[in-house]
Amino acid sequence: MSISSEALSAKEKIARLRLIRTENVGPVTFRQLISRYKSAQRAIEILPELAKRGGRKKPLVACPMAKINKELEELDKLDGELIVLGDALYPVPLAATEDAPPVMMALGHTHLLDKSCFAIVGARNCSVVGLKVATSFSQKLGEAGYIISSGMARGIDAAAHSGAMATGTIAVLAGGADVIYPRENKKIYQQIKETGLVLSEMPFGTQPQARHFPRRNRIISGLALGVLVVEATHKSGTLITARLASEQGREVFAIPGSPLDPRSKGPNSLIKQGAQLTESVDDILEVLAMMDERSISEPQYDMFHTPYIEEVENNLIDDNLEEAYKTINEKLSHTAIAIDELIRLTELDTSVVQTVLLELELAGEITRHAGNRVSFC
């Protein structure tokens, strides 16, 4: 993967934190801005102009430095570390996902990010058998050299962390890295901080909300080579993690169960859809051994080697970009559409569509969705 071998400067790290904390800047837009302007410092300077071209009336102002400094002070107090996309410390598998978190707050042992990772997730309201399976599998996978990632939820997640405590585990939180949720997992949280790693892309103090969990789930799977689903009902949020893993090109594994147990509906359904039927740790290790030999796909936007396209941008303006805005706005609606489909329908050049969408998002006119889709807000 095209990752710079040199660490980012402290100034650029802070600028990237400021950029992603700015209104209307999401992970995909962040990546496009860095790819285009080569630094967050330069991107921040041009944000007002881009948002204005997208139709925003009120100037788009970058996140205030006072707020950023407060966040960095909290990080320092907790003896944490800022993990920034584009820096040498950022985990390679996660960087290869299209909506990788631009920044993460890390508490604990960041060297675990250099090792191969495997995710284990499942139901909160799980069976005793499910707990035993999660604990046993995480312990054996840890002994085989894999770091276990999960979401520190009650049930299967907590069991997965416990089983891997001796070998290394990463807890990805939906709220701030300093927010213990659920409170009953306080002991596990403290243990992970001491021997493993706690990660979150959210600012400190953020209380987890329902909309945060799918975002957390993409990090759990994005860190890993594969994901094991132990137990999950048919409508469980765990299946979101499995779907995201599949979209990210990760292998999905599932423990089969009785058709009479609602908690087996999720894994059994995944197996029908092509997930690896898993009865033992060896079933996982055999597949992972082959996956280790395959390179993980490149990110859609190469932020490290893509040349600055100021000339292209100027040509777009000269060639009446307003007409492109009109065409794209006619095709967009409040129902999400794949960007590839939008390009096909408009018959516009890809670079034109990407430029218009970037500016519309900065203006607050559109929202990006998983699967490279967009819609009006």
What is the strand and helix layout of this fold?
Elements: H1 10-20, H2 27-37, H3 40-53, H4 65-77, E1 81-84, H5 92-95, E2 103-108, E3 117-121, H6 128-143, E4 147-150, H7 156-163, E5 169-172, H8 186-195, E6 197-200, H9 212-222, E7 226-229, H10 238-247, E8 251-254, H11 265-272, E9 276-277, H12 281-291, H13 310-318, H14 321-331, E10 337-338, H15 339-346, H16 350-362, E11 366-369, E12 373-376
Parallel strand pairs: 3-4, 3-7, 4-5, 5-6, 7-8, 8-9
Antiparallel strand pairs: 1-2, 2-6, 10-12, 11-12
Describe the structure.
The chain is α/β, with parallel strands linked by helices and 377 residues long. Among the domains are: 106-291, 3-Layer(aba) Sandwich (Rossmann fold), CATH 3.40.50.450; 310-376, Winged helix-like DNA-binding domain superfamily/Winged helix DNA-binding domain (Arc Repressor Mutant, subunit A, Orthogonal Bundle), CATH 1.10.10. Helix content is 45%, strand content 12%. The chain has 16 helices and 12 strands. It has helices at 10-20, 27-37, 40-53, 65-77, 92-95, 128-143, 156-163, 186-195, 212-222, 238-247, 265-272, 281-291, 310-318, 321-331, 339-346, 350-362; strands at 81-84, 103-108, 117-121, 147-150, 169-172, 197-200, 226-229, 251-254, 276-277, 337-338, 366-369, 373-376. The strands form 2 sheets. The chain has a 9-stranded mixed sheet with strand order 1-2-6-5-4-3-7-8-9, sandwiched between helices. Strands 10-12-11 form a 3-stranded antiparallel sheet. Strand 7, helix 10 (238-247) and strand 8 (251-254) form a beta-alpha-beta unit. Helix 1 packs parallel to helix 3 (40-53), helix 3 (40-53) packs across helix 16 and helix 6 runs parallel beside helix 7. It starts with 9 loop residues before the first helix and ends with a strand.
